[in-house]
Inverse folding.
């Protein structure tokens, strides 16, 4: 463990505001893996993820001196990554049509994601790898906001409240939009029901288990 691991984000931010460039480098080292990981889960492409991560830290450098500490730095960084991703997709959309929303009914009832039957583990690791691959590919088909919400909640395991902070939306909006995202994801996974060993029932699996499969 390095010495800087014991220095809080707040202290490093204050040092950076006072002109200590090394403090910024330490913050980058602390968060570069998490930032890249989120970027990769949103883009599913290593080159695109690297571009999103690089732009995120550039925006961080340009904005950090105005950071007031209203949220944790990690939450603020997730917001920056999300905004960079949205901008990235907007640039892509100039060359192809990307639907903004999948129309489904709003519902406050939780929609659970299809996952593998825990009682069947015949194919072991290979099967799990294929399930992860399919889930990641299917998530890429979701509209941007739905994709971000699914990744933040089911993979990054952020709370409703933190996602509301990240996206700057009311808590009720987050819950209803996440439910729509789950419904859309279940529809996209319908052709792969056999792969996940899902029964033909209205509610299958557990959201947390689906995130573990990714």
């Amino acid at each position: 463990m390095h010495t800087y691991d014991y220095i809080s984000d707040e202290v490093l931010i204050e040092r950076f505001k006072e002109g200590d460039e090394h403090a910024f480098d330490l913050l980058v080292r602390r968060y570069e893996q998490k930032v890249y990981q989120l970027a990769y889960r949103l883009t599913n492409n290593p080159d695109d993820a690297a571009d999103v991560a690089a732009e995120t830290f550039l925006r961080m450098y340009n904005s950090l001196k105005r950071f007031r500490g209203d949220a944790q730095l990690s939450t603020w960084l997730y917001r920056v990554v999300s905004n960079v991703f949205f901008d990235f997709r907007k640039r892509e959309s100039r060359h192809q049509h990307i639907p903004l929303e999948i129309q489904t009914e709003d519902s406050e009832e939780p929609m659970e994601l299809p996952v593998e039957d825990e009682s069947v583990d015949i194919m072991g690791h290979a099967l799990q790898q294929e399930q992860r691959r399919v889930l990641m590919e299917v998530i890429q088909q979701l509209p941007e906001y739905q994709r971000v919400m699914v990744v933040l909640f089911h993979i990054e395991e952020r709370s409703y409240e933190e996602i509301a902070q990240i996206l700057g939306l009311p808590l009720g909006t987050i819950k209803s939009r996440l439910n729509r995202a789950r419904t859309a994801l279940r529809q996209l996974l319908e052709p792969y029901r056999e792969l996940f060993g899902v029964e033909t029932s209205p509610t299958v699996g557990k959201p947390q288990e689906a995130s573990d499969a990714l």
